[in-house]
């Protein structure tokens, strides 16, 4: 299946105290329509920066190189006008904190309606369509709540409103950055189920950012594991979770808490996560890796095929798979 989104050799460079730093270092993956690709890793691994690069919202001072292929064209080569047209119409983003992303002085219906009015709809038609969108994301009594402000919604309802806002432009690619982080477990499950149903109904491609492997197991079709701005491994979600091809992925899986109180973490991950500004030479994970050898210090391992539809950036991946 040809991916709608095809990221290859993506480098994002930021100025640092000792010179420019590649906070994303040759990142690559794909997302197909009707499928969800998950970006997983610890804080500082580059997940959110990757999503921001895809949608074109990088911070000031950042420069991007490589390829972000969307429907056959490299968005990094497009002018600012064309990129703005892509955002909201072709691709949209659900942010981690909806209370910060939503405008506190505008009603929910007004915010959704502003996007709908870009197509030339009247205010009344946009309001009606906004109610329908809120109903679609399963907000109870949408017709009476369309004039509420963000602070009048619960956390789960705000996230549903944020999803409605993202869907208003009927995007083909939906990016979700930690969409369930601040929600309790029951609400998390409902939001993830909603995203999956909407993806299937609209045949959208979805890029899901999360640090939670349980979220990925529930939602993602494919996984991209990231560490210190680099890709560790990629592959079908079930295969990656059952048979990790990188020591970092294996450590993440072993550190997922269980519901059994008497069951400790089987293999705590030592050390402090490396970031792009503190990335060691060679393999970025080598200072925390139980499999590290001299080759890991000398050579950067780049992703390579290790099994069907799977890649790993470990010199010794075959010992794991």
Name some characteristics of this structure:
12 helices, alpha/beta, 8-stranded mixed sheet, 321 residues
Write up this protein:
The protein is an alpha/beta fold. The protein folds into two domains: 233 residues, P-loop containing nucleotide triphosphate hydrolases (Rossmann fold, 3-Layer(aba) Sandwich); 70 residues, no CATH class. Helix content is 32%, strand content 22%. It has twelve helices and twelve strands. Strands 6-7-8-3-9-10-12-11 form an eight-stranded mixed sheet, with helices on both faces. Strand 7, helix 8 and strand 8 form a beta-alpha-beta unit. The chain starts with a strand and ends in a 9-residue tail after the last strand. The mean pLDDT is 92.
In CATH, the homologous superfamily of the largest domain goes by the name P-loop containing nucleotide triphosphate hydrolases
Largest sheet: 8 strands, mixed
**Proportion of helical residues:** 25-40%
Helix/strand order = EEEHEEHEHHHHHEHEHEEHHHEE
Task: State Rg.
Answer: 20 Å
Mean pLDDT: 92
* Span of the ends, CA to CA: 25 Å
The CATH class designation of the largest domain is: Alpha Beta
What is the overall shape?
globular
Structural class computed from helices and strand pairing: alpha/beta
Briefly note the CATH topology name of the largest domain: Rossmann fold
Q: How are strands sequenced across the largest beta sheet?
A: 6-7-8-3-9-10-12-11
The number of strands is: 12
- When the domains are counted, the total is 2
CATH architecture group name of the largest domain:
3-Layer(aba) Sandwich
- Uncertain spans: none
Number of helices: 12
